[in-house]
Amino acid sequence: MVLGNLIGGFVVLVVGVNLMPVVADQVSAAQTGQFGTGVANVTGAAATLIDLTTLFFALSIMATAISLGVSTLKQSGLV
Length: 79
Fold this sequence. Notes:
The protein is mainly α. The chain is 78% helix and 0% strand.
């Protein structure tokens, strides 16, 4: 069970890191209006929040991997 959690943590990291450029590209496209309209409708507070989408995605990947690692170490008795 412990080894399965470690492998799961690594899979989460690999998939998340590989999806990071896709998320960043989509955020950039949403800001610049590259979805066919040519006009960016994201202004003000919404523009600030959409900038943080990539950061929150990265933080969620990191938090998930850390929590899986800590729970695995607790199950194995190392922590």
